[in-house]
Amino acid sequence: MAILLPPLPYETDELEPFMSSDTLDLHHGKHHQAYVDKVNALTLGADLADADLETILKVAKTKGDETLLNQAGQVWNHNFFWPCLTPGGGGSPDGELGQMLTRDFGGLKGFQAAFKEEAETHFGSGWAWLVLQGDKLVVTSLHDGETPVGKAGTTPLLTCDVWEHAYYLDYQNKRPEFVDAFLEHLVNWSFAAENLARAQGQRAA
Ligand code: FE
Q1: pLDDT given for residue 87 in this prediction
Q2: For residues 68 and 51, what is the distance between their CA atoms, to the nearest angstrom?
Q3: Domain 21-84 belongs to what architecture?
Q4: Domain 95-204 belongs to what topology?
Q5: Residues, Cβ < 5 Å to ion ligand 1
Q6: Per-residue pLDDT tens for 32-43?
Q7: With CB atoms counted within 10 Å of each terminal CB, which end of the chain scores lower, N or C?
Q8: How far does the centroid of ligand 1 lie from the alpha carbon of residue 83, in Å?
Q9: How many angstroms does the Cα of residue 8 sit away from the middle of ligand 1?
Q10: Alpha-helix residue ranges (DSSP H) falling in the chain
């Protein structure tokens, strides 16, 4: 069973005006689909043909297969990115995630400043992340198709795609405006809170 392109969790026009349906058609329908197709082509007829994405990532890493690792990483990152966005997003998280943002960044504003800095200054293509590292929230970025999956003690909570294909149609070269829109109007804090709760549940188990 080949891996599949997951459907978007909203209609392509529901994130407008902050992310256009043209961007989603292209980004999800073409770019993300192309990564899925490439992973399936690379694993066709091989031991990994029936494997799930996490297994493919793990084996590609062990074998040092950079091509498969990058393509599969991009599939994973995009699968994770779409639910990081939601119509009517933004605002601030409450509950434990809100308390941890206050503890580790001094509050929502401090987190936004750290995330903006990371996303805007990341050189070239990549992803900005909020991750749980040990018991602490950390903002970081990774290059190209690199993914935090499988990094010991690290659980991804939230990400923003800062490849040009994520924002060029809507914001041209103005990545900072896209990152502002992500933080103020698109970010899905409920999804990040679910990821935090799941990580804590797994550690407690
Ligand atoms: Fe992308």
Answers
A1: 98
A2: 13
A3: Orthogonal Bundle (1.10)
A4: minor pseudopilin epsh fold (3.55.40)
A5: 161, 163
A6: 999 999 999 999
A7: C
A8: 13
A9: 13
A10: 21-26, 33-43, 53-63, 66-81, 95-105, 108-121, 168-171, 175-181, 189-204
